[in-house]
Amino acid sequence: MTEEKRKAILARYRLTDKYKVKQERYLESEKGVDYLSKKRQRHRRRRLNKETSGTLTAYEYRVIVHAYRKKCAYCGKITRTNVSDHDPDLRTIDHVIPLSKGGEHSRTNVVPACRACNDLKGDQDGWVPQPPIGKLKF
């Protein structure tokens, strides 16, 4: 079966009532609800990335991390990159003014934060990071 023929058969199947009932049942299940939630998050993140102005290079972020001596800008705990995604000591990029509130993805709006502080902060603004220990030399 050629790829074009397979696509045509699948397109016809998606127009049937059988497919629509099956899809509706899936989207109402726990797995389907989780899928839709993650899909919305992906699309929202993509939209925010397209709409935000400013760019942050990897070099600029490394300079910022070095100026903070690899510590969280909020709690001062040493952060690491070689840990699991769910470890509270994982270093993350935090936007002081969240992208969702109009903040830029630039060196003036980004600080290193541990996973615990970044998760707790969420998209709130008003959290004030500590000043860097070292100098920012770009």
Helix content: 40-55%
**Order of SSEs:** HHHHEEH
Tell how many strands the DSSP assignment holds. 2
Strand order, main sheet: write it out.
1-2
The shape, in one word, is: elongated
CATH architecture of the largest domain: Orthogonal Bundle
CATH topology of the largest domain: DNA Binding (I), subunit A
User: Largest sheet at a glance?
Assistant: 2 strands, antiparallel
Distance between the termini: 57 Å
**Structural Rg:** 21 Å
Instruction: Give the rounded overall mean pLDDT.
Output: 88
CATH class of the largest domain: Mainly Alpha
Low-confidence runs: none
Q: Give the helix/strand class.
A: mainly alpha
Which strand-content bin applies to the residues?
5-15%
How many structural units, i.e. domains?
2
Helix count from the secondary structure assignment: 5
